[in-house]
Amino acid sequence: MENTLTIGLTLFLTLCVDISEAVGRKEGPHGENTQKRLAGSSDNKGGRCSYTFIVPQQKLTGALCLNTQSSTANHSEVAALRLELVQQQEQLEKLRGQLEQEGSLAMEVRALRKESSSMNSRIAQLYGQLLHEVMHKKDQALEQRRVENLLLNATTQALQVSSNYRELEKKYGALTSILSSQNQFIARLEKQCQCRGSSQASLVGTNEMTNDVQRDQSAPPRQQDKTAHYIPSTTAHTPTDSPFISFPVTKNPGPWRDCQHVLDSGETASAIYLLRPQSTNRLLQAWCQQSHAQGGWTVIQRRQDGSVNFFRTWEQYKQGFGNLDGEYWLGLEHLYWITRQAQYKLRVTLEDWQGRQVFAEYDSFHLEPENDWYRLRLGQYSGNAGDSLSWHNNKAFTTLDRDKDSYTGNCAHYQKGGWWYHMCAHSNLNGVWYRGGHYRSRYQDGAYWAEFHGGSYSLKRISMMIKPI
Ligand SMILES: [Ca+2]
Fold first, then answer.
1. Assigned domain for 8 exists
2. If you measure from the C-alpha of residue 167 to the centroid of ligand 1, how many angstroms do you get, rounded to a whole number?
3. Ligand 1 centroid to 416 CA: how many Å?
4. Tens digit of pLDDT at every position of the chain (469 positions)
5. What is the 399 CA–ligand 1 centroid distance (Å)?
6. How far does residue 255's CA lie from ligand 1's centre (Å)?
7. DSSP for 238-295?
């Protein structure tokens, strides 16, 4: 604008100078006053510079110098200037248009930048989500692999269990087969026993069974079983007959009520004596222990060398069996009649394989009759062997062929001897006599007293004795 104004003023001044010169040339000598009035004190002679001051309406700063001699502008220059002015105006317009265009572009750029920024944040968000999903999928893959491994392990275990189950089934089948054959064997034995009883065919059947079971025992079978001391089975059918073959040489031939009676009669030697309990015609022989614990003891059971098989039937446990000077069982029926006479006490003496001797005493002992399965009635314990019989108090007697115990199976079958079983035993002095004490067996079938060395220790010497109080 300032340039345009300057150019305008210059043109105006140039035009003014031209006009005044033209006027001066027309007036000639008459125009001197006028020239002097216009130029003031300045003199136009000899090409001297004349000045004309024009005060524009706008405020001007600085002095304006007009060379009247150079103001020979022509129209072409004016036209050129005008053209230039127009061109500049056009350029100005163009610039303005460009400026406006640039302004709109700047707006667009700003909008684009804003959009770009929002897009960037959106991309960052999406990237974050994607990363999260990738990690999640990775975790899922790991979890899936873990579950697959667990499944694999479980399957392996299931297969193992299945295999074990099949093996157990096979074992069970084998055991069932063994049990079946054992039952058949037992039935055969019972039949043989019955045959033996009815035909009175002496001891052939018994000896067969003895030998057969003897194989379970560590001691070899002895010929003693076949000697004259064996208690014959005829007593079961003719109780009044004497079942005994030998008698000791005594001052008084007897019979006596019990061994205390023998002692009281002056017979102080420990030996076999003939007894006949009161209220019965039943005669029997028993070993009287007269030197131990003040004497007078009627021995009702003895183990010492494994020479006699104790895996016997009900009838045999009822009547008694074995060798009176060795291992034997006096008989439940005899015990019943003896203990009816008075109040008796029971003494159990035990000896282990190191020679240690202990005893257990019960201050009362008697049996119920056969129709109550010779139920055990026992008093208070004393002694140093430990009490392994009170648990059996008030229990019926059980044998291989007569199961009166409270166990689901037959305890006598597993423990290989008749006893007052509960379910099953804290003691079984009629079990298998194993040599050496500790034994290895499928069942707890040794001759043991749990409180003395436990159930898997077969004792060396055992005796059960009764004596009236
Ligand atoms: Ca039972």
1. no
2. 29
3. 14
4. 445 445 555 555 444 444 444 444 444 444 344 344 444 444 444 455 566 666 556 555 655 555 555 555 678 888 888 888 888 888 889 888 888 888 888 888 889 999 988 898 888 898 889 888 888 888 888 888 888 888 888 877 877 787 787 778 777 767 766 776 676 677 677 767 666 654 433 333 333 333 233 333 333 333 333 333 444 333 333 333 333 344 555 667 779 999 999 999 999 999 999 999 998 988 999 999 999 999 999 999 999 999 999 999 999 999 999 999 999 999 999 999 999 999 999 999 999 999 999 999 999 999 999 999 999 999 999 999 999 999 999 999 999 999 999 999 999 999 999 999 999 999 999 999 999 999 999 999 999 999 999 999 999 999 999 999 9
5. 10
6. 39
7. -TTS---S-----SS---BSSHHHHHHTT--S-EEEEE--TT----EEEEEE-SSTTS
Are residues 315 and 166 located together in one domain of the fold? no
> Is residue 156 situated within a structural domain?
yes
Residues with CB under 5 A from ligand 1 (ion): 403, 405, 407
Distance CA 241, CA 232 (A): 11
Ligand 1 mean position to 309 CA, how many Å? Answer: 22
Alpha helices in 287-444 (DSSP H): 314-319, 332-341, 411-415
Overall domain count for the chain: 2
**Which domain range does residue 277 map to?**
259-468
Alpha-carbon radius of gyration of the chain: 71
Q: Is the residue at 282 inside a domain?
A: yes
Are residues 147 and 281 part of one domain?
Answer: no
Distance 423 CA to ligand 1 centre (A): 8
Whole-number Å distance, alpha carbon 49 to ligand 1 midpoint, is: 161
332 CA distance to ligand 1 middle (Å): 20
The domain boundary, picked from 167, 185, 203, lies at 185
CATH number reported for the structural domain that contains residue 326 in this entry = 3.90.215.10
Find residue 288's DSSP bridge partners: 271, 298
For residue 252, being part of any structural domain is answered with no
d(CA 48, CA 37): 17
Domain stops at, among 130, 151, 185 = 185
Considering the entire predicted model, what is its pTM?
0.51
Tokens found for residue 196: 């033996």
